[in-house]
Amino acid sequence: MFDQFWGPHHIPVTDEALKVLTDVNSDPLTRFKNALIVSTAPSWAENNPETIQQWIEWRIANPIEPVPYQAQLAIGLELLTEAAAFDNKLHHINIPTLILFV
């Protein structure tokens, strides 16, 4: 069994995180850094600046396109119906699969 982290049974996004994740006014790198800060444990980003910088450098080298980002955000914001949620499709996977999430 696994925790529900998407779709209708996910843990709701905090108001602070929602503000950061839906920000369209800041530059992309500022938005990404702010998203890392609200997506990690309290004080983790401040205590691990090298890792944050590595993630930022990786994102610069691997930019995310708007459509996949919007799809990911829709999942996190519970905009998918229960029927469309990914967890309902897991039983159809019939090959060894590693599912990672942060």
Instruction: Give a count of the beta strands, DSSP E runs of length 2 or more.
Output: 0
Instruction: Tell me the domain tally.
Output: 1
Mean pLDDT: 78
Pattern of helices and strands? HHHHH
Name the shape in a single word: globular
Keywords:
mainly alpha, 102 residues
Structural features, described:
The chain has helices spanning 15-21, 28-39, 44-47, 49-61, 66-76. The chain has 102 residues and is mostly helical. The chain has one domain. Helix 1 runs antiparallel to helix 2 (28-39) and helix 2 packs across helix 4. The protein is globular. Residues 1-5 have low confidence and may be disordered.
List strands and helices in order, with pairings.
Layout: H1 15-21, H2 28-39, H3 44-47, H4 49-61, H5 66-76
Quick description:
This protein has one domain (7-92).
